[in-house]
Write a structure and sequence with these properties.
493 residues, globular
Amino acid sequence: MTDDKSNYRQIFKATSIFGGVQVFQIIISVIRSKVIAVLLGPAGMGVSGLLTATTSMISGLTNFGLGISAVKNISVAYNQEDPKKIATVVSTIKKLVWITGLLGSLITLFLSSWLSRLTFGNTNYTYAFIFLSITLLMTQLSVGQNALLQGTRNIKYLAKSNLISSFIGLIVTIPLYYLFKLNGIVPAIIVSVFITLCISFLYSSKIKYPYVKLSLKELQIEGKEMLVMGFVLSLSGIITLGVSYIVRLYIGRDGGIEEVGFYNAGFAIINTYVGLVFTSMSTDYYPRLSAVSHNNKLASEEVNKQAEIAILILSPILMIFFVFIKYAVVLLYSSKFIVVEGMIQWAAIGMYFRAASWCLSYFIVSKSASKLFFINELIANVYFLVLNLIFYKFFGLNGLGMSFIIGYLLYFIQLYIVCKNKYQFYFSRSFKENFLIQLLLGLICFSIVKFTSATIHYTLGSILILLSLSISIRFFDKILDINELYRKLRNKN
């Protein structure tokens, strides 16, 4: 039980450190989104979303998944406490991110006219893609710096890097939107990416390791594993981005550019703001899971603990979204975006299944089972695409929220079957109980919001939020002994 408490505390500590930064980044994102929504409107949101989606798709095609495979290799070398090995891996990664980053930039540059026609139906955005091509190199260089920080467990440096770059990026880009309106979108994206690169380099340079000069042959040997694993991860990422891209194009053709803006805004809330919980947890979770991935029993325990904490943190947040999402949308964007309220509420239910499946997906990645991971993601993306197109056709924006639920329910079941049969994975009794209780409370809250008057749903919804929160706090007190931690903190002071 002592070991369990120690493990839970490690998970909670890492989540808290990076979670604090994520809260700050949420505030930054809220301000940025509010500025774009007010100054540029839904059309501006749509243009920004399509430009970002297109460059992200090309980045996914050319980055070879180094952001994930590099962390695993650095983490393994770091656990072996071998400075020379760490230096060799880092030197390999630094060369690979330059090669892959330049590849992405050149492809975007040479295909700029075609990308404009494909994305917007004309060549008006050719120069936009030409200028944005440099961001693919800068982004990939940042990936290399962040992989070093994450793989060596320098969570505080990584947190500070993200926090500072987000803050400076906001301060610098707001005047661009204000002065140039739609013409400020491209400069704002470039400046934000450049600032992120500079800050990430500043903090990664604090990590000292011996210099290792690699020959071309040594680079091939050292980089082969990362590239093979990364390439498969990259392919699955491309498919995911491609599905998102097709959905945006379909919405743009069927519902117009403003409808794309609504779609981007709605899923920015559910995926970015709520999904930031996943980001804060993954920073420590993936390296920690990779360290025990050779042992199915230990790996299963890590997945269960992470999934349990994910559900208990997310559940009260999701229920707040059920009840108060209308006010959140107005706060984050403007009253013009109220139409996404229903879509977000439906999608919030799917986040329960996404939380559990997110933890399971890392199990396969930590095993370096690249082929299995790719096949699994390919199948999932096929039915996600079909569900999105069908439900949007018949139910509009709300249908996209409904397809989110069905898609992640199927994905959750699929991952569980794969992990159980392949790696003898099991869900612990504690996770099952907490998951089912929180899901039931969420479904009740959702039903109340949908089928009762405003007065009743705000009253009963608030009670259910407090109930969900109390269950989470009680669990954390049991495993972390919050009173004991508080006493130790007081004694230190």
